[in-house]
Specification:
about 350 residues; alpha/beta; six-stranded parallel β-sheet; three-stranded parallel β-sheet; 11 helices; about 15% strand
Amino acid sequence: MDKKKKVRLSDIAEKLNISTVTVSKALANKDGVGEELRKQIKDMAEEMGYKVKKTNANSNSDQVTGNIGILIPARFFSNDFSFYWYLFNFLSKELLSRNYYSIMELLSDEDETKLTMPRMIQDQKVDGMIILGQTNDTYLDLIKSHYDNFILMDFYTNKLHLDSVSDDDYYCSYQLTNYVISQGHKKLRFVGNFGSTTSISDRYMGFLKAMHENGISTDFNEIIDDRDSKGRRIEIKLPYDNMPSAFICNCDETAATVITQLESKGFKVPQDISVTGFDNYLPQGRSSVELTTVMIKPEDSAKVAADLILNKIKGESYIKGRHLVSGNLIIRNSVKTL
């Protein structure tokens, strides 16, 4: 006998020729749906055998699956390596130590744009979810309208009141930039798209604070993009006609790309130009230079995230809002003393 297929929100939406978000709001009894349409949606859901599961964050109900979902936007996965795959491994290990398994799901650009709920939630496969990597506010609002037990990791949003775990990007970038300036550098350029993620924005603001405190002028238009507004990698265009003495890169991967481009043009790092990164994460052989960077231990971030999501799903007391994890400067040989 064939196993009966579970009904998803998208199946109900397709039957009624409406959006998934409308179905979600109706079943969650949220505003924005007329009573007649809400009844029609609920009737169709019942007819199709959809089981409404609205988990309350304040509930003390026992765990149902023993699984925690990790939702990662697919655009943050590169062909050769990914920092988020690296973080996922630490998260998975930390959750397993607490008797929870991890289920990873990649969020495609199409599903995010079309507001398709994560399959792991539609199929009721998890007790809670961690969204790892910048996701747009409209999509987050969709999830919030139908599901309580989730947190954000490595980013945050000011528009929605959501629990999150992120690095202390602002202060760590401030420390890093101050170090480069202390080595005699006065002409610095920041590499990273300011608006693509909250972490890059905060790292730029830390860079800006250090520059201004040291009396060094800088212009927002001098930022060098390494990705588009959605976080997808693009070609980095270095200012070969007006080079700085140091590039402050928003992450190690970008720093490695900058170093490769510089070397292809005959520049030596750090003899000719200094370069810094952030994250202390590069696969072996990715860079020809030992990179000065910031290390925020992924196991520390994983522990805070695990504490937060498990307290949330168990209805235990916890501090709501944004949780910061700090780190320290790792000084290697990619910065020259002038």
